[in-house]
Amino acid sequence: MSDTTPTAAPERAAGLPAQSPPVDPAETAKADARPGLSWWSGDRGEGAKRNLGLLATLVVLVVIGILTRPDLYGDASWVWGNTLTILKLASVVGVVTVGMTFVIIGGGIDLSVGAIVAIAGVWSTTLATQSYGAGGMIFSALTVGLAVGVINGLLISYGRLVPFIATLAMMVAARGLAAEISDKQTQVSNESFINGIATTKLLGIPLLVYILAAVVAAGWVLLNRTTFGRRTVAVGGNPEAARLAGIDVRRHTVLLYALSGLCCGIAAIMLTAQATSAQAAMANLYELDAIAAAIIGGTLLSGGRGTIIGSLLGVIIFSTITNLFAINGLSTEAQNMVKGGIIVVAVLVQQVQFRSLTQFLARNRATTT
Amino acid sequence: MSATSEPGRMNSEEADVTNEPLVEAPADTVAGEVVLRLTDVVKTFPGVRALDGVQLEVRAGEVHCLLGQNGAGKSTLIKVLAGVHRPDSGEVVWRGEPAAFANPQAAMRAGIATIYQELDLVEDLSVAENAFLGHEPRRLGFVRRGHMARRTRQILARLGHPEIPPGRLVRHLPAAGKQIVSMARALSHEARLIIMDEPSAVLAHDEVGNLFRIIRELTAQGIAVIYISHRLEEIREIGDRVTVLKDGRTTAANLPARETPTRDLVSRMTGRTIEYVFPDRPADDPAGAELLRVEGLTRHGEFADVSLDVRAGEIVGIAGLVGSGRSELLETIYGARRAEAGTVRMGGRALRPGSVGAAVKAGMGMAPEERKSQALLLGEPIYRNVTLATFGRYARLGFTDAGRERAAADRIAAALELRPRDVRRPVRTLSGGNQQKVVVGRWLLGDTRLLLLDEPTRGVDVGARAELYQVIRELAARGVGVLLVSSEVPEVLGLADRVLVMREGRVVREAPAGELDENTVLDLVMAGSLMEGAPA
Questions:
Q1: Are B343 and B412 within one domain?
Q2: Residue B234 is assigned to a structural domain of this protein
Q3: In which domain, by residue range, is B349 found?
Q4: Fewer CB atoms inside 10 A, N or C side of chain B?
Q5: Per the structure, how many domains does chain B have?
Q6: 3-state class of A241 per DSSP?
């Protein structure tokens, strides 16, 4: 701090940085050194704490399950089976959410994910595509997802459309195209390899859960350990600073939406396998589930902050709630009300945390300058 | 900071003004009682001391001008008066009583109206609805539209604009008309003090005359006006007294607006408040081969036909006021803005216009004017901010190496004496000076050959200033070229080897720093329109 006006004196006395001799930096570093970086939070202590809160929420949900259905929870094999059911339920939306998390951290939003899943699913199950076999179907689903994502990205970064508008338009257009291609019919998948993706189990765990795990792991590495992830945080946190540091913000924006599209392509294959068919109305409202899961998971809607693990926990919390209602024989309507409430509570809690954090920083500012 | 302890050494005679009785204006220039008095007002935000002891005294019926560079604290001061911010310490006395406005509504009710630069009108409401926004005359919950229109018409007549229809949508009014609506809103609140933040910035020349006529009518009715403007000639014309802010402090209070020499005003606004320590220049001519050559660079309305060059190891300073086109020039050289004409060459090779990537690849680095909004990821750790432009170099096959990055950032932190030294702390927790070190330090990694510095010491405390100067000088000694923009003339003269003076988008003088003195540069900076009618 610069000057020593009489008014400044009391604060300074409280913080006493100026008058005291310079602190040995080595000492400071030692004092501030944090315990090792936890593997499940990237290397942010802040994110780790938030994820602990999500885990606690999950525990509460399980406890509610035990209290409401002690008969079922008494059976260990049922509990294991139910856990797999929850994870399987979370798998498709989970894959979409990983892509969504990248887009939101990068300062955008993708409302078209559900529609991309539908167009990719429908495209890959046309008779023409199916004639190329399972490989052709997978290839076309991934390519269509990627291509639609690239179009989103180009519209946003080079066409300068607001992400909300561009992906809203894509949401409508892609569903329309999917209905056109499928002639509003349900297209049955005759490829046993594809259908087998939903039924295959490895070591007693469904293949779908492995796919989710693989996508989450890849997403975590991409976000926390690669230059791509670093650019994503920079572009979302302060696009101007990123640009002036020489990062190609527009190109990166295209890549983010392409990644989201690719995740939708993967999800399309998983969903087609589960239903052994695809249709234009599939993956309805997935965009809302994915955005909600990312937000609950602590991703800042304005960009620059978020974790893959948080998003995953967000998805699992949602599917646990669905499961909780199912095992108690309650309606989907009541379920949606609870989900809505959870979103509000999660965001409120985050705001309180953020506010107390900034207050904490303000109070300690004197000692850090 | 270590060098900030003794008050006596810190403050020159100018800064001491704050602790002495305010300079009283001649009694005949203003007649009214004091309606507003600020004493030692301090307001801090994380990382910056926006107001650092402000004194202000405003009388009824006067136009009190507030003068200061960008970042001097004018906006914060306005927001304190408008009830947006609450001061950390100090006293605000409004009409004889200590005041602490909890929110903008409270300030409004007390009779303080603020007209912001970006007018806060609702474009799709009518003139009358905007004038009475938030306090519409009501009966049984229904807005009395006729009554509201009638009163709006009266107010508009009082402002000398009876021709504006109260029912017209604000969207359809020109900028000058919108400003009238803002003033009508102030009068609808029976404001006793109207704060105008650069009201002339949105107006054409002839409209400014009309604005002044209105201001005179308002003051004749005993209303006090705080008038903020960069344009000295306006202050001469409309102002009664002037208070000058610099770095969040009052450097001069209650100067007579018409009689004070321009040079005095400018030097209080831009000049040093303390004796800066500049590192010595090397004895022999340090400059090497030509690094940067800019020819005929032009952006309409910002700057025109600028040519300059920077050699390796040379510090070239650009002096100029806000609005002289200096920051825009720097950003255009860097590729952050696209030049309309002219070329930028680095080491003889022309750079692709409008591409920051190309500039960085060619060895340029920039520390932009607005640290927080243009340079930093505030929530991210220090090391990630230091390596923001270079993390790709520490990565293998696209995988980042946080350990190597931290080690590199540690070296930078040690070299720049960053405090605190722990590079995993978020940048948000650093002081302004240390944040600036992070931004400059970013370009010490990698092979930056030319550093563009835009106001590198704004909001930076004294100790860190001296350290930054030292760093810049050492960089030059290592052969890095530096192009420095500053509105502080002593800084440009003290640090640069060669100086370019910019005014209204053009380079008006180029000379070795040794051949210029502060007064010469100030005259050049202020010459032309700004000097007209001013006793210098």
A1: no
A2: yes
A3: 288-363+448-529
A4: C
A5: 4
A6: helix
Does residue B304 sit in the same domain as residue B357?
A: yes
Complete DSSP assignment for A115-150:
HHHHHHHHHHTSHHHHTTHHHHHHHHHHHHHHHHHH
Under 8 Å between Cβ of B465 and B1: no
Out of A2, A23, A25, the one facing B461 most closely (by C-beta) is A2
pLDDT at B13 over 70: no
Instruction: Give B300-338 pLDDT, tens digit per residue.
Output: 888 999 999 999 999 999 988 777 788 899 999 999 999
Say yes or no to pLDDT of B525 above 70.
yes
Q: For residues A225 and A233, is the Cβ–Cβ distance under 8 A?
A: no
Say whether A229 and B360 touch across the interface (CB within 8 A): no
Query: Residues of A with CB below 8 A from B356's CB?
Result: 243-244, 246
3-state secondary structure of B58: strand
Cross-chain Cβ contact A241/B7 below 8 Å = no
Chain B residue with minimal CA distance to A25?
Answer: B421
**Whole-angstrom Cα distance, residue A322 to residue B435?**
47
| Of A3, A43, A246, Cβ closest to residue B402 | A43
User: How confident is residue B275, by pLDDT bands cut at 50, 70 and 90?
Assistant: low
* Residue A363: count of CB within 10 angstroms of its CB: 12
Strands B138-139, B481-486: pairing is unpaired
Together in a domain, B479 and B330: yes
Beta bridge partner(s), residue B292? B310, B346
Cβ contacts (< 8 Å) between A6 and chain B: which residues? 19, 40
Selected residues 314-353 of chain B with any CB under 8 Å from a CB in chain A: 334, 336
User: Does residue B75 belong to any structural domain of this protein?
Assistant: yes
What is the distance between the alpha carbons of residues A233 and B380, in angstroms, rounded to a whole number? 9
- The CATH number that applies at residue B350 is 3.40.50.300
Distance from CA of A269 to the nearest CA of B (A): 28
Last residue of a domain, one of B402, B426, B446: B446
Residue B368 lies in a domain: no
CB-CB contact of B323 with B267 (8 Å): no
Same domain, B359 and B463: yes
Position A133 scores a pLDDT of: 86
From the list B40, B44, B357, which residue is nearest A248 (CB)? Answer: B357
pLDDT in the model for residue A333: 80
List the 390-449 stretch of B: residues with Cβ below 8 A of A: 391-392, 395, 398-400, 402, 414, 419-422, 424-425, 428-431, 434, 442
Span B147-198, pLDDT tens digits: 899 999 999 988 888 888 998 998 888 878 888 898 888 888 888 999 998 8
Statement: residue B26 has pLDDT above 50: no
Please indicate if any CB of chain A lies within 8 Å of the CB of B380: yes
Q: How confident is the model at residue B529 (pLDDT cuts 50, 70, 90)?
A: very low
- pLDDT of the residue at A29: 37
- Low-confidence stretches of chain A (pLDDT beneath 50): 1-43, 365-369
Q: Report all structural domains of chain A as residue ranges with CATH numbers, in order of start.
A: 46-61+91-358 (1.10.3470)
Interface contact B398-A226, CB threshold 8 A? yes
- Regarding whether B327 and B456 lie in a shared domain, the answer is yes
What is the identity of the amino acid at A203?
A: L
Q: Is residue B256 part of a domain?
A: yes
Same domain (yes/no): B407, B523 = no
Q: What is the DSSP letter of B366?
A: E
Residues of B within 8 A of A228 (CB-CB) are 398
Given B167, B191, B215, which residue is the final one in a domain? Answer: B191
* Same-domain status, B179 and B237: no
Token pair belonging to B452: 């563009």
Q: Based on the domain organization, do B442 and B476 belong to the same domain?
A: no
Picking from B42, B361, B395, the nearest residue to A8 by CB comes out as B42
Whether the CB of B15 is below 8 Å from some CB of chain A: the reply is yes
Can you state the angle between helices A286-296 and A113-124, rounded to 10 degrees?
Answer: 130
ipTM reported for the complex surpasses 0.85: no
CB pairs under 8 A between A and B: 169
